Amino acid sequence: MSKSFSSSGAKIRVLIVDDHAMVRQGLRTFLELQDRSTLPIEVTGEAANGLEAIKLAKQTQPDIVLLDLIMPEMDGLQATPKIIEASPHSRVIILTSFGEEDKVLPAIRAGAQGYLLKDIPPNELVHAVREAYQGKVQLHPDVAKKIMSLAAAKEEPKTSHAATETENGLTDREQEVLHLIADGMNNREIAEKLVISEKTVKTHVSNILSKLHLDDRTQAAIYALRHGLNTDIT
Predict the structure, then answer these.
(1) CB atoms within 10 A of CB 52
(2) Which of 14, 92, 155, 227 is the most buried (most CB within 10 A)?
(3) What is the pLDDT of residues 119-150, one digit of tens each?
């Protein structure tokens, strides 16, 4: 769901968090050298661990936090919800070398807006920062595949189906369709499962994305995982 920004919108303010000074300097230099004819990017600060990141986030209220996972003092996973608490409008993008499932899913559930690997081309990182600023989820392609696999594997829910239904504004049928999207089904398979037309499925999918402020099916699957939706449809 989109959040409102406290900044004027004149620039994208970024906090860089990584325990390697060379990485921080490289990111700062590249980000600040971007074409300023479009919305410019300004690095508001650098932190070497999660504890420093929380303090700086509270002080500077950045739009975007580029956050490493493995750091001393406090790692990125522990820091993510605390950063969001300290600066509620900030969007956290995990930027790490680790794409294992046991790191991806906890980061998404902790509130990360994106999960990127450090092998991402620099121009794609800039694009991801700009897209995250607009409220769009940013995932490395390999991470996106893992998310969809996890959804299809029916990860153990952390919140109840009934609790989520009363909060997300979906109808019972839309809730069913969302569950089946999280199971990895395409529109034809959903239509067959629910005994409805593909056109009707497309309408439900469109309504789901609109109501939940999501852009595509991958984001819908992430929503289902993050909110612990029960994917068992009988």
Answers:
(1) 19
(2) 92
(3) 888 888 999 999 899 888 888 877 777 666 66
